Amino acid sequence: MNDDAVVRGERKVGIVGATGYGGGELVRLLSRHPSVRIAALQARDRDDEPLAVSHPHLSGTGARVAADLPDDVDAVFLAMPHGAAAGIVPGLVDRGTAVIDLGPDFRLKDAADYPRWYGFDHPRPDLLSAAVYGLPELHRDELRALGGSDVRIVASPGCYATTAIVALAPLARAGLIADVVVDAKSGVSGAGREARPDLQFGEVNESVKAYGVGGHRHVAEIEQELGRLAAAPLEPVDFLPHLVPMTRGILAACHVRPTRAVSQSELDELYAAAYDGERFVEVVATPPATKHVLGSNDVRVRVHHDERTRRILVIAVLDNLVKGAAGQAVQNLNIVLGLDERTGLL
Fold first, then answer.
1. Whole-number Cα distances in Å, 309 to 123, 256, 304
2. Which of 75, 159, 161, 169 is flagged as catalytic?
């Protein structure tokens, strides 16, 4: 870090994968962050290209995308396809750089899960135990501890996983989940910017499509985190995602068969206690909509007890590009650097 950055209290950060949707949101958020300076943007096959080519709405930043990443950045955000980050993170860690990985390469603690869910053998399973799953509402103390660690890897959660885990964590912690079905809907931006025939406007407009039938990849981290919280082993999570014709946003409807009889008042108290003081999680009294959180780092959650079916319905919504990706990554960086975690996000 140069002397000027030290005087102004700035931390230099780089973004790898800056031309994707997640990378663009990172630039949008970090360009107004008072304690961070974007020192480098990197993308595959781009060298000294204006960021405005990929993100016209960010033309005012004057940023350019390069092919290389400088060595003197304090932290690097990785917005890369699965399997790509695992190969470059060890070198970054060896240089003392903090890593915030928006992909899945360090989310799962068991290396044996990677061939099953992501189709590759993890090259550095020794680093999995050092990485912290970056859901601050569950792992804030571990994220803070990374600030003084030699190995600083934050594995930011998947967008579906964030929605489902925030929705279900209070029930898992209380031992109330006998089984659960998560029915989720996502906007098209969740699939990334890669050109695919099934994501063209003519295919997704006026249509809803289920996908990932039989095992979406985010199930692995949902089961990992809920299992960690649960008082007893959980049944496998039944998760079905859908693609809906909107740009951004996720809604997850979680249908829970409880382990015992519960009441609405008990559930209200449980969720109020779980998220009391959490700036980015709001427990609401009516079913939330994705428009309620558009562009924000917020999650809105509604828990409802159905007296007729005796099931619990938890509905959660978030913006998949903010709390589901870039916003949560910035929140994680703030915690690791010892800043107010709301910095740059309000």
1. 47, 11, 12
2. 159
Radius of gyration of the chain (CA): 20
**Other CB atoms closer than 10 Å to residue 177's CB: what's the count?**
24
Helices (H), the chain: 3-7, 21-30, 85-94, 113-118, 136-146, 159-173, 201-204, 219-229, 264-275, 327-336
Give me 108's structure tokens: 């799962």
Please tell me the distance from the alpha carbon of residue 319 to that of residue 210, in angstroms, as a whole number: 19
Q: Are 48 and 28 in contact (CB under 8 A)?
A: no
Neighbour-count burial of 235, counting CB atoms closer than 10 A to its CB (0-12 exposed, 13-18 middle, 19+ buried): exposed
pLDDT, one tens digit per residue, over 229-275 is 997 889 999 999 999 999 999 999 999 999 999 999 999 999 999 99
For residues 102 and 167, what is the distance between their CA atoms, to the nearest angstrom? Answer: 20
| Among candidate residues 55, 96, 102, 105, the one with its CA nearest the CA of residue 75 | 96
Query: Which neighbouring-strand residues pair with 22?
Result: none
Q: Tell me the per-residue pLDDT of 298-321, one tens digit each, with 9 for 90 and over.
A: 999 999 999 999 999 999 999 999
Q: Which long-range contacts (CB under 8 A, 24 or more apart) does 283-287 make?
A: 287/315
Q: Is 159 a catalytic residue?
A: yes
Q: Which two tokens stand for residue 345?
A: 């996000």
